[in-house]
Amino acid sequence: MPAPLKVALVGIGKIAVDQHVPAINASDDWELAATVSRHGTVDGVPSFTDFDTMLAERPDIPVISLCLPPVPRYRYAQAALMAGRHVMLEKPPGATLSEVHALDALATEKALTLYATWHSREATAVDAARTWLSDKTITRCHITWREDVRKWHPGQDWVFEPGGMGVFDPGINALSILTAILPMPVHLTAATLEFPANRDTPIAAQLTFSDNVSAEFDWRQTGPQTWDIEVETDKGPMALRMGGNRLELGGTHLTGQDSIMGEYPALYARMAELVTTGARDVDLAPMVHVADAMTLGRRITVDPFHF
Ligand code: NAP
């Protein structure tokens, strides 16, 4: 068996602890060789508080996985590529489309892997949904993505700061699935964005796309959370529930499970494959829809939001 790939995890916060560390530790392909974080550490793993110091002192680590929020991420990704390291980006891959294009060009120039991950595309039922829809005519598609920002982003003010994307932070997960499963491309035609009076990003959004596709995202849902994509076709209805992890045909459960725990192991397996084969994977289709919504969306002001 080949030696595991060494990876440095940067930004030891909620998603690093909840998903990245367990996925890396469970894989024979990977060794968590260092962390970089101003406050966070992982037991038993060498830790750095400064990224440039880690790059200088650990030339043996070929892969950097960036779990920072999108706004600070670009500088780290650029420095890692300049230092000859392969880079894995959390979603959304950047604060703007053009900065991710710049990273993609740099990775190409340096012949390094850049992987813009979309964890929801690795949900267990997404491939089955794509296959089932591939020879159907879609007559309607509606996304309902309602979750509790206080549960998933406790105290994280960056989601409401410019570049934090607001409700599009989870909404882009739905769009990553949509752009993976539909047999035809769609484009945004209208949007309404609800901005809390005291915040810079939306807390809710309603989107209308071409081809009778629509979406509602809301971050104010308490109690049961909803991550559904319901599709009507010429051969009957299909529903992807639990964020792409459960597939129903005609109301009957066909495949999948009510768990998201397989998504990050699949991302790291894909990253190992990309590094081994010298490939890149940077698909910005989900983020184009978010940028379009921010461009075209009608803004309305709603109640202030406090964590
Ligand atoms: P987080 O816990 O708020 O941030 C992760 C870490 O990034 C922080 O602990 C912090 O570590 C570092 N960081 C924050 N701001 C920084 C800055 N300005 N400069 C340098 N480092 C900074 O966020 P998260 O929830 O893990 O989300 C991170 C990314 O993962 C986001 O893109 C998010 O969309 C994605 N994601 C999150 C979830 C979720 O459920 N929360 C799920 C899937 C994907 P130090 O202070 O220790 O440096």
Q: What descriptive keywords fit this protein?
A:
six-stranded parallel sheet, single chain, alpha/beta, binds NADP nicotinamide-adenine-dinucleotide phosphate, 2 domains, nine-stranded mixed sheet, Rossmann fold, 307 residues, 32% helix, Dihydrodipicolinate Reductase, domain 2
Word description of this protein:
Helix content is 32%, strand content 27%. With 307 residues, the chain is an alpha/beta fold. The chain folds into two domains: 112 residues, NAD(P)-binding Rossmann-like Domain (Rossmann fold, 3-Layer(aba) Sandwich), CATH 3.40.50; 149 residues, Dihydrodipicolinate Reductase, domain 2 (2-Layer Sandwich). The chain has a nine-stranded mixed beta sheet with strand order 14-13-12-11-7-10-9-8-15. Strand 11 and strand 12 form a beta hairpin. The structure holds NADP nicotinamide-adenine-dinucleotide phosphate (NAP). NADP nicotinamide-adenine-dinucleotide phosphate (NAP) binds next to helix 1 and helix 3.
* SSE sequence, one letter per element: EHEEHEHEHEHEHHEEEEEEEHHE
Based on secondary structure, the structural category is alpha/beta
CATH class of the largest domain, anyone?
Alpha Beta
Cα shape: globular
Question: Major β-sheet, in short?
Answer: 9 strands, mixed
Q: Strand percentage, roughly?
A: 25-35%
CATH H-level homologous superfamily name of the largest domain: Dihydrodipicolinate Reductase, domain 2
Overall mean confidence score, pLDDT: 96
Total beta-strand segments? 15
Bound molecules: NADP nicotinamide-adenine-dinucleotide phosphate
Uncertain runs with pLDDT below 50, 5 residues or more? none
Proportion of helical residues = 25-40%
CATH topology name of the largest domain, in short, is Dihydrodipicolinate Reductase, domain 2
Distance between the termini: 48 Å
**So, CATH architecture of the largest domain?**
2-Layer Sandwich
Radius of gyration: 19 Å
| Strand order, sheet with most strands | 14-13-12-11-7-10-9-8-15
Number of structurally distinct domains: 2
| Count, helices | 9
